[in-house]
Amino acid sequence: METIYRKINPQEIDMSVIEEASKILKRGDMVAFPTETVYGLGADALNEDASRKIYAAKGRPSDNPLIVHVSNTEQVKRVVKEIPEAAKKLMDAFWPGPLTIIFNKADVVPNGTTGGLNTVAVRMPSHEVARTLIEYSDVLIAAPSANTSGRPSPTTAKHVMDDLNGKISMVIDGGEVGIGIESTIVDVTSDIPTILRPGFINKRMLEEVIGHVEVDKAIIGRPDPALKPKAPGMKYKHYAPKADFTIYEGDKDSVAEKINEIAREYINKGYKVGIIASDESVDKYHYGEVVSIGSRADELSISKSLYKVLRSFDDMKVDYILGESFESDELGPAIMNRMLKAAGYQVIHT
Ligand code: AMP
Ligand code: MG
Predict the structure, then answer these.
(1) How far is Cα 39 from Cα 56, in angstroms, rounded to an integer?
(2) CA atoms within 13 A of residue 81's CA, in its CB half-sphere
(3) Pocket flag, ligand 1, residue 51 (CB < 6 Å)
(4) Are 237 and 244 in contact (CB under 8 A)?
């Protein structure tokens, strides 16, 4: 299949591109488009054949449900049984934006979209291109990240083309995304709202709006085989770069010293090494391919670059990645959740 590639300026949307994409969605085919989190691979959420195509193109396990993207509240009502009070507050506070809410699903939503669950995940993205496409086509768009399953999520249209060129009908290039990691997922179907996946909207922000919020125990720390994550996708080794990735934590100087020592050792053995530094520390590293992931003073610069940096190490064909760790109260849990998965939970305390 020939993949149509179209550039679009989010500030001045060319409606002929939206029209072309909308026709593809309506006939049950796939279009990749930018959202504020990562690029999404979209298809008609209420058409079971269309959502099946998403699983095939991504190589996604069929029990991993899709998020339904909407552009207004009327569309939410079409796919859910009821909107609980907590969800109303969250929708008012954070939509449009990077928050996915789990509801009990209405019968019209096919099992193919929800991986057989009785619940449905819904998000109203704020990205102008995503909003315009959903609003104009009036298609409720099921859209997981537009990458091959297991690869880092795409934050540019080039990443999408690298993974899916020839497998989907169209890619809309709206430039690099702003947040760079997937949406926060919160489940409001239980008595106490629960975070199923950390993201830009953090626990503190949610609690300011709806009071006490729990975090799914299965996603805290190293995966415990006895606990099953409530978001089925969280059990997969996602976001993985090709190289062997280890995170080093501890005080900044000892981390740099340790990474330099290990990097030199690997390089002497003939391996290629990539190092994940920050703007504040990049000058401390003397060996290998040193990449700054962003500034610790601007956490969004880190989340925005994370997947791009991991993909760039794939392109450079490094054998080992040695990375600093990025704990903090705000975006830290979301960033570390992705980094730890990418590293297969290999962490060294210095
Ligand atoms: P992606 O769109 O690729 O970021 O993946 C969607 C994420 O949402 C996966 O982790 C899914 O397991 C999760 N998800 C989608 N629908 C549901 C649902 N009904 N209940 C719990 N998690 C869900
Ligand atoms: Mg994904």
Answers:
(1) 17
(2) 11
(3) no
(4) no
* Pocket lining: 144 vs ligand 1, CB cutoff 6 Å: yes
- C-alpha pair distances (Å), 325 with each of 247, 251, 284, 339: 6, 10, 15, 8
Tokens of 178: 């702003």
pLDDT at 127: 98
Predicted confidence at residue 258, as pLDDT, reads 98
Q: What tokens appear for 297 in the block?
A: 């003073």
**In the numeric block, which tokens belong to residue 252?**
């900044």
- Site to probe by mutation for ligand 1, drawn from 62, 102, 111, 147 as the one with most ligand atoms within 8 Å of Cβ, is 102
Interval 137-169: pLDDT, tens:
999 999 999 999 989 999 999 999 999 999 999
Cα 177 from Cα 189, distance rounded (Å): 30
CA of 342 to the centre of ligand 1 (A): 18
Q: Is the C-beta atom of 69 inside 6 A of ligand 1?
A: no
φ and ψ at residue 274, rounded to 5 degrees: -110, 140
- 102 C-alpha to center of ligand 1: Å? 9
The pLDDT of residue 237 is 67
Q: In the chain, which stretches have pLDDT less than 70?
A: 237-238
Could you tell me the distance, in angstroms and rounded to a whole number, from the CA of residue 185 to the centre of ligand 1? 8
Task: List the one residue out of 289, 285, 280, 288 whose CA is nearest residue 257.
Answer: 285
Residue 342 DSSP symbol? H
pTM for this entry: 0.96
Beta bridge partners of 119: 104
DSSP SS3 for 4: strand
Ligand nearest to the CA of 233: 1
Q: Are 301 and 147 in contact (CB under 8 A)?
A: no
Per-residue DSSP letters for 166-221? TTSSEEEE--S-SS-SPPEEEE-SSSS-EEEE--SS-HHHHHHHHS--EE-GGGSS
Beta strands in the chain (DSSP E): 4-7, 31-33, 40-44, 67-69, 99-104, 119-123, 141-142, 170-173, 184-187, 194-197, 214-215, 244-249, 273-277, 289-292, 320-324, 347-349
pLDDT of 234? 87
Q: Which residues lie below 8 Å from residue 175, measured CB to CB, with a gap of 6+?
A: 10, 34, 156, 157
